[in-house]
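User: Design a sequence. Structure:
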């Protein structure tokens, strides 16, 4: 076997293992540590590595969900922080923790990295919590929740003639049908569209609220080939951000996604799989447009965020699902996308490729 098709960085880095929990509406009986530990054990077992053999560990989570400061330090009990380890944390989706770990490997300070993220949304109202992401002077005091803002974006798409309610319903139906083969998905199979949450978005157009965990192992060069039969090489990765003020941008487009994709080399060659972090059906319309995805690309074959959307882990899951398809030979070149903030404010794009025979 030879290396990945293209390489634009100092070191070749690959996803060599991926694991996730079953995503559930509630996990009242489990602490965050108890949620994280089985997934960490599973992803390490897939490589044969022990925690002490990992060069760098990085996690992604949100103290707002946990309701206490520095809550991520508690989950280090699940990793094992003694003897001392090289560790970091981002107050973001785990996709951004993966980016930090990838940079760490690029610098040569580590050859392997463990990345994990988790979110336990069930104890509170996620719709209200996410208002804290908004501008603190003009928007946050109005308390527009995440569904209302997504509905604003959906209505803008409809007004621009780029979609309609039946098309949005079809996206939701396809996602839930694809999730039928995903044993970890929270919602699977036929799910009624239901009533309007905020017009024009119905229940089926919105992500389920639930709890979940994801983890991946990264490795560079030859160690990656030793740890995985067919590594998913990260041949490009980049993230960009839109203006904070919603009134300052076109909600029917995502130039930051397009720019990130350009810098990640996405447009250099066709992809066969796209795992898009689109928590709302209308956001898939925006992302497809930004990336120019055609009907030949399998979009969210895992079911995507409409089937399971654990806060702070759903973006990392998109990278993991894309990598897993390369691992098992179902994909040769895939794109994974993660987002954070209202109406696709922050966007990360990663291109993954398998070895050529």
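Assistant: Done.
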């Amino acid at each position: 076997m030879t290396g990945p098709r293209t390489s634009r960085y100092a070191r070749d880095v690959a996803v060599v293992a991926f694991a996730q929990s079953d995503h559930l509406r509630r996990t009242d009986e489990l602490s965050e540590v108890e949620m994280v530990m089985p997934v960490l054990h599973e992803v390490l077992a897939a490589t044969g590595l022990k925690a002490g053999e990992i060069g760098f560990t990085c996690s992604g989570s949100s103290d707002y969900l946990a309701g206490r400061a520095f809550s991520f330090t508690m989950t280090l009990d699940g990793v094992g922080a003694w003897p001392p380890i090289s560790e970091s944390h981002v107050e973001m989706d785990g996709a951004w923790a993966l980016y930090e770990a990838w940079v760490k490997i690029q610098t040569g300070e580590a050859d392997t990295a463990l990345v994990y993220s988790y979110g336990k949304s069930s104890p509170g109202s996620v719709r209200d919590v996410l208002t804290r992401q908004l501008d603190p002077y003009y928007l946050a005091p109005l308390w527009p929740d995440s569904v209302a803002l997504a509905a604003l974006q959906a209505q803008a798409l409809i007004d621009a003639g780029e979609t309609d309610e039946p098309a949005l319903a079809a996206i939701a139906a396809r996602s839930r049908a694809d999730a039928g083969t995903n044993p970890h998905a929270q919602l699977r199979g036929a799910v009624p569209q239901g009533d309007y949450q905020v017009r024009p978005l119905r229940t089926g157009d919105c992500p389920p609220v639930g709890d979940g965990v994801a983890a991946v192992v990264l490795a560079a060069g030859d160690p990656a080939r030793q740890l995985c039969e067919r590594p998913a090489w990260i041949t490009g990765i980049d993230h960009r951000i839109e203006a904070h003020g919603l009134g300052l941008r076109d909600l029917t487009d995502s130039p930051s996604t397009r720019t990130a994709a350009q810098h990640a080399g996405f447009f250099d060659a066709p992809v066969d799989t796209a795992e898009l972090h689109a928590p709302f059906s209308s956001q898939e319309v925006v992302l497809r447009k930004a990336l120019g995805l055609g009907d030949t690309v399998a979009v969210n074959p895992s079911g995507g965020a409409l089937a399971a959307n654990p806060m702070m882990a759903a973006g990392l899951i998109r990278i993991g699902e894309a990598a897993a398809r390369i691992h098992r030979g179902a994909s040769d070149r895939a794109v994974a996308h993660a987002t954070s903030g209202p109406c696709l404010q922050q966007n990360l794009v990663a291109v993954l490729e398998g070895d050529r025979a």
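The chain has a mean pLDDT of 93. The chain has eleven helices and twelve strands.
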